[in-house]
Amino acid sequence: xxxxxxxxxxxxxxxxxxxxxxxxxxxxxxxxxxxxxxxxxxxxxxxxxxxxxxxxxxxxxxxxxxxxxxxxxxxxxxxxxxxxxxxxxxxxxxxxxxxxxxxxxxxxxxxxxxxxxxxxxxxxxxxxxxxxxxxxxxxxxxxxxxxxxxxxxxxxxxxxxxxxxxxxxxxxxxxxxxxxxxxxxxxxxxxxxxxxxxxxxxxxxxxxxxxxxxxxxxxxxxxxxxxxxxxxxxxxxxxxxxxxxxxxxxxxxxxxxxxxxxxxxxxxxxxxxxxxxxxxxxxxxxxxxxxxxxxxxxxxxxxxxxxxxxxxxxxxxxxxxxxxxxxxxxxxxxxxxxxxxxxxxxxxxxxxxxxxxxxxxxxxxxxxxxxxxxxxxxxxxxxxxxxxxxxxxxxxxxxxxxxxxxxxxxxxxxxxxxxxxxxxxxxxxxxxxxxxxxxxxxxxxxxxxxxxxxxxxxxxxxxxxxxxxxxxxxxxxxxxxxxxxxxxxxxxxxxxxxx
Length: 499
Hints:
With 499 residues, this protein is mainly alpha-helical. It has a domain at 25-275. Helix content is 64%, strand content 1%. The chain contains 20 helices and two strands. The chain has a two-stranded antiparallel sheet. Strand 1 and strand 2 form a beta hairpin. The radius of gyration is 23 Å and the shape is globular.
């Protein structure tokens, strides 16, 4: 007599992580659907310009839309409870699938991009890295320039949301020290998440509009103002011109960009707190103060260096220094000049700044300021214990006491970061790249900065000369850097896939 089977029996032998793959793909299809709809905007731009490339975006939009709807229909099933395991899987799949979708117009375009170059460009956009495999941007159809800017803008708001809502819960790299009220798992969490998300989106949109208006008022064309506003607030760095911001030759535009890059590099949750509760606590935040003071000191030091070595007036030197320092430290990646030829001191400054990044809960990449603060506090405690072995000195981040698991997460992140950095350098060197290109290419991809140093991928160059292997490799590294490394690496461990 045949035994009756319950509905859940067919999944009983399947590991829980594999079962959660289906709902993660289901959610990813919705994001792909949204991206397919946004492709209509650049298609309309090309149609208004009477460019035949509008059909590229129309075809891409229709294809992705159909595949996404098919995926939504076929993969639909009840959502599992949110767990760290599901969070790791969902976050990685979202960025990976979205990058594939975003790469379709580049691949189908007449720009001559290989699948590796198209995926590299899309990944660079969504991770707000700003490295480009395109040349002759001034001759590129406006639809593709707008699509690049839109990808960075979408990626910027996406990483803020992940950083505020998901990373603290996943306990990634010490981010749990910034756990907000929305990170709890109580019944009241959802209303807080909804209100916080609305305020977050409102601030992001308002700041982008303000940036675009100011750019246009200072002399940018309307199209340039819109595109550069999206890539400034997202600290992405894609420009419509091969010379980046050096194209505009206006110090007022550079200072406007400095202001809005800093806005994008500060914790957005503090803006939300001001909007909802009317409390302006920005300067009270320890990492904000550290970030601002460091930027000011580095800009002045570099300005004095330029004044003494290149005979540039101090105010002009300060403009160039401040713009490029802020661009690199916020991982935006704009350039107003080829700072690689400013001399050895400047070379060293920009190499170090590439690692730092902005504040947690912002659109920036990099290691982040708070991790350096925690590491510095741990170093101070180690020195104190050498003198007073029995003293009890808890680690502090401002008024908060740093728990041991937070400190462990930061240490693990540093170890994983530099191990991955070393492996990437070796892989690029093995592929035939010179040492400077390998060193700074791995660095800029892992920290999501954009340009590296040297003649090939420096501020005056791009990543187009790199081979297929290098482009695929750096695309993966950009994703790892954007998602705090451990979020992706854990998917390749056996423990993740077994119960």
